[in-house]
Structures are given as structure tokens and as C-alpha cells.
Design a protein that fits this description.
The chain is elongated. Strand 7 (about 175-185) and strand 8 form a beta hairpin. The relative contact order is 0.12. It has helices at about 35-60, 100-105, 205-210; strands spanning about 60-65, 80-85, 105-110, 125, 135-140, 155-160, 175-185, 190-200, 215-220. The N and C termini lie far apart (about 140 Å). Strands 5-8-7-6-9 form a five-stranded antiparallel beta sheet. It has a two-stranded antiparallel ribbon with strand order 1-2. Helix content is about 20%, strand content about 25%.
Length: about 220
């Protein structure tokens, strides 16, 4: 019977347990500061854009706008008007879109270009001028008009100032009462042109004096 030969110099290999397995540390995550900063900037910009959009929407209003040119004195038809949303501006007083039925059928007191908002007081039930009145246009510099923005319907006084010679003109009262019927800025000179409703008798002399620029305008109380 044969015996399996064994070597005296053989030693069994040690068994590796879980504790003997070398641990590999997890990879370190590197923070990319550039990407983090870009993300923060993007979030801030998004917030600013949202705030701007909310502000622009909350301060806008829907108003009536001339769909095409409307000449002065024309009866405003429904087809002449459209609605548009514009930003609020304290310098202008547009007619809200809800007043559509009130504007239709009225006469335009002055002409409107296409796309122009319909302003408060820019329409009337009757023609202007009417009766024993005339309309006189006066171009005024900033030194000849009040600091307050003139509005249609304002009651004003026109003061005739001395000419270049310093003499007070004759044939016209130093002060004339009038009512503002329209206000616009001249494209060529930038002067404020005020259409004034005055009595028929005073209109020719006032127009002649206004042509020389020797007038000044006083705004009276707006209390009614």
C-alpha cells in the first residue's frame, strides 16, 4: 500500500480574511468653484428678470389707441380705435380701454396719428371752436409757459408783454382769458404749441401778437 509523499518544507498558504484586504480610500470630490459661481449668478439673474417682468406687467395698463390716423374734428368711429397695453407714465393721461363706448361717437379735438394713445380730454361732443369762439395757436418757450404741464380744458390767461421797444401794445387788453383746447410739441422747433379757445373779437389781434412771440401764458386754478 503506497503512501502519499509529503514534503517537510511545505507550509500552507495563509487564508486572507476580510480584515486583511487592503482598503482603497474613496476618490476625493473636487469642488469646481467656477461652476458654483456661475450657477449662483444664473439664479440671481433669473430672479432679477422675473422681478422686472412682474414690475413691468403690474405697472402697465390697457388703453385706447388710434388704429389709423384720425383728423381733428372727425367723428370717432368704433373702427378707428383699438386696444393696447402700455407702461404707465405720469406725463400722459391715456383713456382706459373700458371707456370705449364713451369715446365712440365723439369728435376728435385734435388729430391723432396711427398708434397714438387717446388722451383724456382729446374728444368732445361738439366741434371746437363753436359759437362766438375762435382757436388761436401760440408757440411758447419754457420762459413763456408755466412749469406745470398744460392739459386740455385748463383755464389760462394770456399776458401781452412789451415788444422790443418796450412799449405796451394797444388795441388788445393786457390780459386775455382763454381755455386750452390742445397741446403738442412742434417737430421743427421743439416749442410747445398751445391751441387756445378765445373770443371771436380778440382772436385776430392775439394771433398777430403771438406771431411776434411777445406773449406769456398764466395757468389759473384747476378747481372746478
Amino acid at each position: 500500500m503506497s503512501r502519499t509523499a509529503t514534503r517537510d518544507d511545505w507550509t500552507p498558504e495563509p487564508q486572507l480574511g476580510p480584515a486583511a484586504i487592503p482598503l482603497v480610500p474613496p476618490p476625493k470630490l473636487r469642488r469646481r468653484r467656477g461652476l458654483t459661481a456661475a450657477a449662483v449668478v444664473t439664479i440671481l439673474l433669473g430672479g432679477l428678470v422675473a422681478a422686472w417682468a412682474w414690475t413691468a406687467t403690474s405697472k402697465s395698463q390697457e388703453v385706447l389707441v388710434a388704429q389709423h390716423a384720425i383728423p381733428a374734428g372727425a367723428v370717432i368711429q368704433a373702427s378707428d380705435l383699438t386696444r393696447a397695453r402700455i407702461s404707465s407714465d405720469p406725463a400722459i393721461t391715456p383713456v382706459p380701454a373700458g371707456a370705449f363706448d364713451d369715446v365712440v361717437g365723439k369728435r376728435a379735438t385734435y388729430g391723432f396719428a396711427a398708434g397714438t394713445p387717446i388722451a383724456q380730454g382729446s374728444y368732445a361732443s361738439s366741434m371746437v371752436p363753436s359759437g362766438n369762439n375762435s382757436l388761436v395757436g401760440i408757440a411758447l418757450t419754457s420762459a413763456q409757459e408755466p412749469g406745470q404741464t398744460l392739459r386740455i380744458g385748463d383755464h389760462v390767461r394770456i399776458v401781452v408783454t412789451p415788444g422790443e421797444g418796450g412799449d405796451q401794445p394797444t388795441g388788445l387788453p393786457p390780459v386775455s382769458d382763454a381755455q386750452v383746447a390742445g397741446v403738442h410739441v412742434a417737430d421743427d422747433t421743439g416749442a410747445t404749441v398751445v391751441d387756445l379757445l378765445v373770443s371771436h373779437d380778440e382772436a385776430p389781434l392775439l394771433a398777430a401778437r403771438a406771431a411776434t412771440g411777445d406773449v406769456a401764458l398764466i395757468l389759473d386754478t384747476r378747481e372746478r
